[in-house]
Specification:
The complex is a heterodimer of chains A (488) and B (467). With 488 residues, chain A is α+β, with helices and mostly antiparallel strands. Chain A is 20% helix and 39% strand. In chain A, the strands form five sheets. In chain A, strands 1, 2, 3, 4, 5, 6, 7 and 8 form an eight-stranded mixed sheet that branches. In chain A, strands 10-17-18-20-24 form a five-stranded mixed β-barrel. By secondary structure, chain B is an alpha+beta fold. Chain B is 22% helix and 35% strand. Chain B has a six-stranded antiparallel sheet. In chain B, a hairpin with a 4-residue loop joins strand 12 and strand 13. The longest helix of chain B has 17 residues. Classes of the chains: A alpha+beta (488), B alpha+beta (467). The interface between A and B is large, with 87 and 99 residues. Strand 3 of chain A pairs parallel with strand 2 of chain B, so a sheet runs across the interface.
Chain lengths: 488, 467
């Protein structure tokens, strides 16, 4: 593919681009679903194309084409330069890129079993087995299960000499059981809601998740919720399970630290951020137990934010985001690094596919586990009175990322160190920094899971990206619970 | 841009390559460009051309689909192989119907409802938009921001697209469309304003006017004060209305009833909303956009979903209609017939209405009139991050954004800090005191619709944020 890339770079250079990079991407995906004993959808997809990103007259241009013939590639590069010159008509200052040593590299997601090597029959059999387990529980009115596999091969070549070939693989699986009765719909999902668990690994993830083994319990919980009391309203101590905490991190840490949001680049759509530049290394983001990193490196784990190089050729890094409660870092790119006094990008620029412009995206934004051994059961045993909430059901946060409200699928009232009753429709809300400062206990490594969020939307045109979030169950003091149902 | 003739050639080759009992080819794509600005400068500017071909093969009662964006013979052979191998290992689906023939899809067979005539939605002036044209538009918007000492961010996009569907029973449908869209946020030190509009015809867009309105909202909402959460009379501008009501239309689907995941389960034929709420799905409405056929090529019908607050019916894909006729719900769901709202097969969601039109009220009021008649209330420009808290009473949460104002004694009294809402959509549509003439509107939380502004009593705000 190097020759295709060179057609683009040479054409861009010949038309006056001061910088150019090109990405040639081949994506393959498979999506299988079942619903109530039948295959819901069975889809295979392939998409191949290339894009050229250039700076000309000090401004950005980007064009993409599915055609990889020389004429089409050169025309796409020429279009990118023309677009950049149009951008320059409304410009205040020239684009500045932080220096980056041009990398020549190969990188691939480590995996044990290629998910595309597993037969469709075997996958459908698994899904139908899950489905049967879910619907074996009386009261289940709808059962849905899914398997998803993605492979992306990318060649990145830049006018500065970078030449990087990456192959990224991801696998996802999950299911949900619904129970409709009277005037109420209750739902339980496993291992997480909205598509389950996703990681950058092969089919081995499917075995690790123990999908069939948990199906009946999940279905029973969905039915049992109908008999449960409504979650009480008021201020409570709150224990969040690992998956819900992963989404809490995503929304109230991951998004506000995106430097493009902070700088106003997303103001029209995704919003801005309360984390204005003056807050770096001055804001007490959370309690002293809160340590959050943005870590795209393989050693962090198989998150959806794990890669070798980002989509402008910067190597994966680990950036301390919150250190013992102090806000210490943003997610940055080559264009934005200088605004926080850095001379190198944090390596977070990623694109959904060949036809999308790379932008700052979360990598693996993870809350590091507690250092002292603490299991969830020990945490519960040490809690006098609290609500434990599991598995996200709804999520919402304002456009500066202050005020949030989350609903969960199931809750448990904890009294005297024990779960005393199941509660339905649990929800909690708060202000981001107040919430993180109320964290007073978090479980240790054994309870820590690196969750995948496959559906993070951002940008115009909107791009969907996978992000990773490591978390262990944690406790928060004096949180507002139940206001979602107050007065509604 | 792919032409219908080129698409037909792709279909012919796929048909030649397959041994399936039936084959359906769907084609979508086109040219898309978007100029994005922030901090009064163009900071992203993109263009792409891409077309996606998908082949659905059927062997008896087994079917599957595969996608590619390459149209050479080998790529098409591969997409056929993928679709065939996926289909062959399916379990038989007794609900799968033969692909529709042309007469069935157009409504000429079977004496179904009449299909409305859809006006042309392709405009040469929009198709010909250049990066320079968009940049000049952005320059004018930035000029407004500069004049008001504001910072602006937003987009100006343009597109020319095609959608086509062909099948081995002779069906051949093709639709072309253009679109242009402008979205503008104006930011002041502690406030903001927003406007967004789109149209198939760029001549209908007025970026300068939109910029001026967004700027006025930013200026007028400066120094927002905090007022307590609680129940207020709210005046929701059309974008705020569509952002909320969009969350119920997934439920107006036969499959959602069969799955018992719809809040309309057991409620069709009942009065769920106020007398003044009448809702149609109408792809042919002059303010609507989109393709006049569904994922199987069936012509989209005009369907009355709600009349005077009574939920009349839901929409159906072909197979869903047949299932519903055999189901225990068949006598409780109103008319049952394929309405041309199905998604491409195979899928698990069935169908949904996507061309929503609210009927005009008998006594329309402008937003200004609604404000003038309000003793104490909140004017909402836009909503954000709406999510479903409870699916059967349709309790939704979300935030106000980019222009939230306190209204007292018939006048706007300045900006207020943004609220979190937790409101039942059923309650909201039962508490509508006044509506404007419906207008084509677009937001970020739902799809575009023809909706009115609404004055709603007892709207439930539960929290206030920090700005």
């Amino acid at each position: 593919m190097k020759h295709v890339a060179n057609w683009a770079l040479n054409a861009a250079s010949a038309r006056g681009a001061s910088y150019a990079d090109t990405r040639i991407v081949a994506q393959r995906s498979r999506a299988l679903t079942t619903k109530n004993g039948k295959v819901g959808s069975a889809l295979d997809s392939e998409s191949v194309g290339m894009s050229v990103r250039v700076i000309a007259d000090g401004a950005w241009g980007f064009a993409a084409s599915a055609e990889l013939g020389r004429g089409a590639v050169e025309a796409t590069a020429a279009e990118a330069v023309a677009i950049a010159r149009a951008s320059a008509r409304v410009k205040r200052e020239d684009i500045r890129l932080a220096p980056e040593k041009a990398a020549v590299a190969e990188w691939s997601t480590p995996y044990k079993i290629d998910p595309f090597s597993v037969s469709v029959e075997q996958n459908i059999e698994l899904l139908l087995k899950i489905d049967a387990e879910l619907r074996s529980v009386s009261g289940i009115t709808l059962a849905e299960a899914n398997l998803n596999f993605n492979r992306e091969q990318q060649w990145f070549v830049s006018s500065e000499g970078a030449d990087i070939h990456q192959t990224k693989l991801s696998t996802g699986a999950g299911y949900a059981a619904y129970a409709f009765a009277g005037n109420e719909i209750q739902k339980r999902s496993y291992p997480n809601s909205f598509g389950g668990q996703w990681q950058s690994k092969g089919y081995e993830l499917i075995d690790e998740l123990k999908l069939v083994e948990n199906a009946r319990r999940i279905a029973q919980e969905a039915v049992a919720l109908h008999q449960a009391d409504q979650c009480p309203e008021g201020k409570f101590d709150l224990i969040l399970d690992s998956s819900q905490l992963g989404l809490q991190i995503h929304e109230s840490v991951g998004h506000p630290i995106e430097l493009d949001r902070v700088l106003g680049m997303e103001a029209n759509f995704a919003g801005t951020s309360f984390l204005t530049l003056d807050k770096l290394r001055t804001l007490r983001y959370g309690s002293g137990l809160v340590n959050v990193v943005a870590d795209a490196r393989q050693e962090h784990g198989p998150g959806l934010g794990t890669f070798g190089y980002d989509d402008e050729g910067v190597a994966a890094q680990c950036t301390p985001i919150i250190t013992k409660g102090l806000f210490t870092g943003y997610l940055s790119s080559r264009e934005t690094a200088h605004t926080i006094g850095e001379n190198r990008s944090g390596g977070t620029l990623r694109a959904e596919g060949w036809n999308r412009l790379p932008m700052i995206r979360m990598t693996n934004i993870s809350l590091l586990p507690g250092e002292k051994p603490l299991s969830l059961e020990q945490l519960i045993a040490s809690t006098d009175h609290a609500i434990l909430m599991q598995t996200n059901r709804s999520w919402s946060i304002d456009d500066k990322r202050y005020n949030f409200q989350f609903g969960c699928e199931i809750g448990w009232e904890i009294k005297g160190g024990k779960r005393v009753r199941m509660v339905k429709n649990p929800s909690y809300s708060g202000i981001t920094t107040e919430f993180w400062n109320s964290l007073d206990a978090l479980c240790s490594r054994d309870e820590w899971t690196l969750w995948g969020t496959p559906n993070c939307g951002k940008g115009q045109p909107q791009q969907v990206m996978g992000t990773g979030h490591g978390a262990a169950a944690s406790r928060f003091r004096g949180i507002k619970v139940g206001s979602a149902f107050k007065g509604a | 841009m792919l032409t219908k003739e080129q698409a037909g050639d792709i279909f012919d080759r796929i048909r030649k390559f397959t041994s399936a009992d039936g084959v359906e080819v769907s084609i979508s794509g086109g040219r898309f460009a978007l100029t994005r600005f922030a901090n009064n400068t163009i900071h992203q500017n993109v263009a792409e051309e891409n077309h996606i071909v998908s082949a659905r093969t059927a062997f008896g009662s087994k079917t599957a689909r595969a996608f590619t964006n390459k149209f050479d013979d080998e790529s098409l052979r591969q997409v056929v192989r993928s679709a065939e191998s996926l289909a062959k290992v399916q379990h038989p689906d007794p609900d799968l119907l033969p692909m529709p023939c042309s007469d069935e899809a157009s409504g000429r067979a079977g004496g179904g409802m009449r299909s409305p005539q859809v006006p042309s939605r392709h405009f040469q002036q929009t198709a010909a938009i250049t990066p320079e044209f968009r940049a000049d538009g952005v320059g004018k918007i930035v000029g407004v921001a500069d004049r008001h000492k504001l910072t602006t961010a937003g987009i100006f996009s343009s597109a020319e697209s095609v959608e086509g569907i062909f099948n081995s029973r002779g069906l051949s449908n093709w639709h072309t469309q253009t679109s242009a869209e402008v979205s503008i946020t104006m930011l002041a030190a502690d406030s903001s304003g927003w406007q967004k509009a789109n149209s198939p015809d760029v001549a209908n867009l007025d970026p300068l006017m939109l910029a001026e309105v967004a700027a006025k909202k930013a200026v007028d909402s400066a120094h927002p004060r905090e007022i307590p959460a609680g129940k207020y009379t709210v005046i929701l501008e059309p974008a705020a209305v569509l952002d909320i009501v969009g969350f119920m239309f997934w439920d107006y689907a036969g499959m959602a009833i069969l799955d018992q995941r719809s809040f309309l389960a057991g409620r069709i034929g009942t009065k769920l909303f106020g007398d003044n709420i009448t809702i149609w799905d109408d792809v042919a409405h002059p303010l609507q956009t989109g393709c006049p056929f569904d994922g199987e090529g069936m012509r989209r019908q005009r369907v009355a979903l709600v009349e005077n607050g009574i939920v009349k019916r839901v929409v159906y894909a072909r197979a869903t209609a047949e299932r519903m006729k055999r189901s225990e719900y068949k006598d409780k769901v109103g008319p049952i017939e394929a309405t041309g709202h199905g998604f491409s097969l195979p899928n698990e969601m069935g169908e949904m209405p996507q061309n929503i039109v609210f009927a005009p009220p008998g006594d329309p009021q402008t937003v200004a009139q609604m404000i003038a008649s309000t003793e104490r209330g909140v004017l909402v420009t836009r909503l954000w991050y709406i999510r479903e808290v409870e699916p059967f009473e349709k309790i939704l949460t979300g935030m106000t954004r980019d222009g939230t104002f306190y209204v007292e004694n018939g006048r706007v009294q300045g900006g207020v800090r943004n609220f979190r809402l937790n409101e039942s959509l059923i309650q909201m549509l039962s508490n509508v005191e006044a509506m404007s003439v419906p207008a084509r509107s677009c937001g970020e939380e739902s799809f575009d619709m023809v909706v009115p502004a609404m004055k709603v009593k007892n709207f439930n705000f539960t929290e206030v944020t920090k700005f």
